[in-house]
Amino acid sequence: MNTRTRLALPLVQVVVAAALTMNNLLRPDRLGSPSWTAPDRQFCDGLNAPAALVRFCLIKIADRWLPGHYPIEFVLETIVYLVLVWLVWYIVSIEIGGNGQSILTPKTGKRNETDVLAIIFGGALGLSGLLVRRQFGYVSTYSNLVALPYFFWGATVMLFYGHDIWTSFGKTQKKA
């Protein structure tokens, strides 16, 4: 994948995420219909599920340290989230160029450990799909559709890095 595409994909995804996030922020936030349940927010989070999961964890940590501190939550919901979206899609654009092999994990110097951490993160994405599915208080067609991207991201990450670790073990066996 060329450098132009490697930069364009994350930029386009950030623009889409920013538009959906801003549209959601303009939505009235009523007790009976909170804005986070709206399709624009759910679509944005599903499309960027890894960033949404990290943002959720950061918000929970910030809420524990500084409960009810709105400015920190707003920064995490917007600026940090958009940076995470850019990072996710930049990593995707780099990994696409590897022809089924990870380009990034061998550069860490601890390829197998990094692959295992990525597989665990993929599992966490899949599990978060179950939580997303139940976030509305009931299971419906809408909640099932909202959870699908999390399952897809989780399975994709686990399969990709699982294949990568399997391949790296095969290369180790051939060298020995």
Q: Can you walk through the features of this model?
A:
It is a single chain. The chain folds into two domains: 1-97, no CATH class; 102-176. Helices cover 77% and strands 0% of the residues. It is built from six helices and no strands. It starts with a helix and ends with a helix.
Net shape: globular
Radius of gyration: 18 Å
**Biggest sheet layout:** none
The SSE order reads HHHHHH
Q: Kindly state the percentage of residues in helix.
A: over 70%
Total number of helical segments? 6
What is the residue-averaged pLDDT? 86
What is the number of beta strands? 0
Q: Give the N-terminus to C-terminus distance in angstroms.
A: 33 Å
Summarize the structure.
This protein is mainly α.
Could you name the key traits of this structure?
176 residues; globular; 2 domains; mainly alpha; 6 helices
Strand and helix map with partners:
Blueprint: H1 3-26, H2 39-47, H3 49-65, H4 70-96, H5 111-133, H6 141-175
